[in-house]
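Renewal narrative, Specific Aim 1. Our central claim is that a sequence can be written position by position from structural information alone. The example that follows is taken directly from our test logs and has not been curated for this report. It begins with the structure tokens describing the chain, in the order in which they were read.
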């Protein structure tokens, strides 16, 4: 019996064999691609918000941004449990005007961004530090 959301394929909390919920202590699926030398800021309109299965990590949130009315760029935010969970009350909606800062990389011919922050109006969603370390994993050193 399913949950009514299309996730249950007879394996409990799995999506086509991938765990739905990542362990908060696991590494970031996109950290291996993050390059602090490629950090840039883009602005545009959210045209798609979806969850994509990442083998071994669970569901990842992806925001697709239409930049300058000419370029479409997928932006990987982080695990779904962090983005849509209790920590992040306001979810993204189609048409939102966003400013995204992150590492823009090209892997196998596909250009995408791994977000460090996303701004929407006066709200800022902090996802990773300048070195790509995720906000949702473990203790952080503070600087005063």
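The sequence written for that structure reads:
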């Amino acid at each position: 019996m399913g949950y009514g959301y299309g996730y249950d394929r007879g394996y409990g909390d799995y999506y086509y064999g991938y765990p739905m919920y990542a362990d908060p202590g696991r590494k970031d699926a996109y950290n291996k691609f993050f390059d602090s030398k490629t950090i840039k800021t883009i602005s545009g309109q959210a045209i798609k918000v979806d969850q994509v299965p990442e083998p071994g990590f669970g569901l990842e949130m992806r925001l697709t941004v239409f930049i300058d009315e000419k370029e479409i760029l997928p932006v990987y935010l982080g695990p779904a449990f962090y983005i849509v969970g209790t920590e992040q009350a306001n979810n993204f909606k189609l048409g939102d005007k966003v400013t995204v800062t992150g590492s823009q990389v090209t892997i196998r011919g596909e250009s995408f961004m791994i977000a460090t922050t996303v701004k929407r109006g006066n709200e800022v969603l902090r996802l990773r530090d300048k070195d790509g370390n995720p906000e949702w994993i473990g203790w952080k050193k503070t600087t005063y």
